[in-house]
C-alpha cells in the first residue's frame, strides 16, 4: 500500500538479520542471540522460549533451518548458564520448544529431549 509504519520504542532495536515468512506474513528477526516474530504492524507476535542462539552476533542465519510450511524453526543454540550446545526445534507461531538435541552428560551419544503433549511432562529418547 506504500504506507510507512513507525513503531514507537524500537529505535535501538534493529535486528542483525531477518527472514520474511511469506506463508505467515510475518518477520523472523535475529538480534543478540534472540529470535522473535513480528507482524506488519510492527507488533511483537512471538518470543521463543529456551532458545538462545549460539552465535552472539545473531546474524549468522546459516545455523538455522525453517521448514517448508514455515511452522518450525530448527536452530543451533546455547544452553543458558552453560557452554553446552543444543539443536532446538521450536514452533514459529507459538515460540514453544518441541524438541532439543543435546549431548549426553555421560559424554556418549546425543539425547533427544522432546516435550510430550499434555501432562506427561518431558521425555528423552536416545539418538545414534
From TrEMBL:
- Give the Pfam families listed for this entry: DUF7899
Under the heading InterPro entries, the entry gives: DUF7899
In terms of superkingdom, the source organism counts as Eukaryota
Query: What protein is this chain from?
Result: Uncharacterized protein
Give the taxonomic lineage as stored in the record: Eukaryota, Viridiplantae, Chlorophyta, Chloropicophyceae, Chloropicales
Amino acid at each position: 500500500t506504500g504506507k510507512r509504519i513507525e513503531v514507537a520504542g524500537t529505535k535501538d532495536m534493529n535486528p542483525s538479520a531477518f527472514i520474511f515468512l511469506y506463508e505467515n506474513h510475518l518477520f523472523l528477526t535475529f538480534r543478540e542471540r534472540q529470535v522473535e516474530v513480528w507482524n506488519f504492524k510492527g507488533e511483537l507476535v512471538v518470543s521463543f522460549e529456551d532458545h538462545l542462539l549460539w552465535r552472539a552476533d545473531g546474524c549468522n542465519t546459516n545455523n538455522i533451518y525453517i521448514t517448508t510450511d514455515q511452522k518450525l524453526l530448527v536452530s543451533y543454540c546455547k544452553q543458558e548458564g552453560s557452554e553446552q550446545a543444543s539443536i532446538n526445534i521450536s514452533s514459529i507461531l507459538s515460540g514453544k520448544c518441541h524438541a532439543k538435541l543435546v549431548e549426553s552428560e555421560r559424554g556418549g551419544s546425543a539425547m533427544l529431549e522432546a516435550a510430550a503433549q499434555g501432562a506427561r511432562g518431558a521425555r528423552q529418547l536416545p539418538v545414534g
